[in-house]
Amino acid sequence: MKTISRLLAILLVLAMVFTLVACGDSKKDKDKDDKDDSSKSEVDDRDDIKDDDKDDKDDDKDPTAAEPTEEPTEPAERDDIVGTWEGELVFLKVLDAQDTFLKDPNAEYYRRVLEGVSVTMVVDFKADDTFTMLVDEDSIQNSIAMIKKGFAEVLPDLFAAQGMSPEQFEDYLTSMNMTVDELVDRMFDAQKLVDQMKPPETKNGTYTYEDGELTMTDDAGKARVWTVALDGDTLTLISIEESGNSIPSGILPIVFARK
After folding, report:
1. pLDDT tens digit string along 194-217?
2. Would you tell me how many other CB atoms lie within 10 Å of the CB of residue 230?
3. Which residues, other chains included, contact 101 with Cβ-Cβ below 8 Å and sequence gap of 6+?
4. Which of 147, 166, 148 shows the shortest CA–CA distance to 158?
5. Can you give the pTM of this predicted structure?
């Protein structure tokens, strides 16, 4: 039963992976140099001279002259990202990026269980420079159902890999007075899976977006700096500035679509 136990452990780990895709633990410092005090003093002196000149020029100003019109300003780059976005975290994509998985002789079982399983992340960038990030709970419940279904389908083969024939597997179910689905619930510890995949609390905070760099700072002051690509209604998280807690291989890039 070693293979089964390993599969369960991997599934539970993957169930928690998506919680890392939010605001993190590194805050980007953006220090600005102060102007030299002596330079500031010189500027103040020049301002006094300019004020005297301005008073003289105001007396000669033509009262009929039209005031210059202001050129229309371009929308702020930040406005392009304002809105609600949805992205999918595909478990199998994460697993395929792990060397241990690719070399594992039982990888086919993991792949069959996780085929098509994903969770949906929703990010809302507001016009007031605040954001909300959450994991859609319906997608989690759907993932749990798909994992259990996949596990039930692969379970006979897992037992066969342990040397149990189909007939012996049926006899085993009969002796336990269980169906395959009931056995999955018992072995899988369904409640533990539900608890592990419980969506994290909604993240709230502020953000800045400029020149392909998205900084998301949560209410606790922790931030992550993403390199992103924005193309119309498609937002792609490409990479992240490394911090103490790195993102597992295979999660990035994540593609979000505007809702």
Report:
1. 566 565 668 899 999 998 999 999
2. 16
3. 10, 95, 107, 110
4. 166
5. 0.68
